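Worked Example 4.2. Consider the chain below.
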Amino acid sequence: MANIEETVNGTDDVQEVQDKKQRKHDSGAADLEKVTDFQEETELSNTIANAAQMFVEKGNREAQAKLAKEVELQKIHIKKSDIDKIMFELEVSHSIAEKALRENKGDVVEALRFLIKN
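Applying the procedure from the previous section yields the following structure tokens:
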């Protein structure tokens, strides 16, 4: 009977050793998981930061292009009488008539065509 108890106790000891090894393995796996999670979060943060930076840069480039276009349009000389003609013929506001004239380099006929098409 003592033999049976020793076997059972021996089995229990073996089981405890295996359990300890498993816990240690699980702990190591958990530590590895923490490291990989941290790395993934860092990479994701960097990716998001880069995307945000690209978005801001694109917006800045578009704003600069729009400003440059406005400066060029302001250099074009137009006549007040041409603005009045377009306003009268198409019943549009002063700003729309002026913008159409500037975008069509002061050509009244082209400005009228542009406004009619759009």
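Helices lie at 2-75, 80-90, 94-103, 108-117. Residues 1-8 have pLDDT under 50 and may be disordered. Compare this with Example 4.1 before moving on.
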